[in-house]
């Protein structure tokens, strides 16, 4: 490329990047302004850095509790999805019969079902379990985790299935001859070889579960159980919107995501590309 | 003996996940089909009355539902174009070995990690107050006004937010596709005198077809099923002018308590999503070329 045209592209890209960032800029600067300052010029830098709206927003959103709830639900759900889906995926690949094929096809074809098609009957099923089997599926983190696992199962099995097909079987056979049980073979030999795809699945699921609003909104009703998207929703619903306070609240909700992105960036971008190409 | 054992292992490894999956996805799906033939208001004490295809007949004559499907189609088409155009443009810029490439790539992807609900709230402020302010300051009041109060522009606002969220995602996939094209192929074309436009349309785009398939699939199903941004940015307003499929179904069931009718809509929604995505994949798959 010629130098002059390269410079033009360089400037163009930088300009697009800045434009891309402008909503974040607007959010952050206005979280520091008082009302008058905000309405005078929403685009200007704040005249002073006061964190009063942050502490207020933190209080009103019940931020620390919500953060803890989100973290707990996401980590436990993802861990269980990874454990169960890798085991299932491996068994389905290594057991070459009709049943495996049927199970796999059923899992894959359900990936097309939108959440809205399942949400109402799902609530009825969970309600039935609660009142007839006395297992508290609704309004508990356990119930939400259970449903998270169900919804993310098919995608995870699908990705593991594709990956395991390319893993050579020889090592497993050798271990079996040495007297290893299937359980031992899987956890000692197979699972460590699946790390790449495990990271991809974990990242995709963390993003989806952390940001999910609809499912938690249907299952959780207690204030103390709310996850971050839920508490953000109620934060915006309860008060007529005071924008500086709202912007402080939104900044707070984004901080964990940015930190996560900062540390796991390489894996996230690789994982997204790998997950999409499936 | 060993066969029996193998079976036991199979059960042990697969049943836990399949059990959860069945109770969360399969059973609700089947019950959902049954519910769509029933009239019920969601209160357990009240009777569920079998009404046959009544709900399906009703939804064909439901103006608000038809309007919401029109909004969804408009939104999906506009988003499909905007997201992929930007994603492709960004991927081409980012892979052209510029100094700001890496930072730019990191930035472009970030909105994708922030949930739709939160994105919608951020942009709500921008489209209402920030836009009004910019309009007053610059005098460009016919571009910068409160977009969310105008039925047409509120839909465009959703397209912009969705594009902001998804462009970086498709960019990543297009980058992966671009990196799969061998350099010497491009060099050979350069030597043969192909200009940049020819290189793009005759070599790069045909070889990018697999990436197009994936990106179109992801944006199509994402746009069609969009709910969070709809809820936080416009709440379907003004006057239901931006109410989309997913939100219409949600309101019908949980807002008005028409469980049967809402579920019938949800089944129709599923059929449309399935047909649409499968056709799209089939079409673009046919256009892929072998290297």
TrEMBL record, chain A:
Similarity-based family: Belongs to the binding-protein-dependent transport system permease family.
Species name: Cohnella silvisoli
Keyword set, alphabetical order: Cell membrane, Membrane, Transmembrane, Transmembrane helix, Transport
Membrane topology summary: Multi-pass membrane protein
Domain ABC transmembrane type-1: 67-264
UniProt name for this protein: Carbohydrate ABC transporter permease
The keyword Cytoplasm belongs to this UniProt entry's keyword annotation: no
Location of the protein in the cell: Cell membrane
Automatic annotation (TrEMBL), chain B:
Transmembrane helix found in the keyword field: yes
ABC transmembrane type-1 domain mapped to chain residues: 69-280
InterPro entries: ABC_transporter_permease (IPR051393), MetI-like (IPR000515), MetI-like_sf (IPR035906)
Localization (cell): Cell membrane
Membrane-crossing segments per the record: 9-38, 75-95, 107-126, 153-176, 203-224, 266-283
Presence of the UniProt keyword Transmembrane in the record: yes
Residues of the signal peptide: none
Keywords per UniProt: Cell membrane, Membrane, Transmembrane, Transmembrane helix, Transport
Topological category with respect to the lipid bilayer: Multi-pass membrane protein
Family in the record: Belongs to the binding-protein-dependent transport system permease family.
Name of the molecule in the record: Sugar ABC transporter permease
Lineage: Bacteria, Bacillati, Bacillota, Bacilli, Bacillales
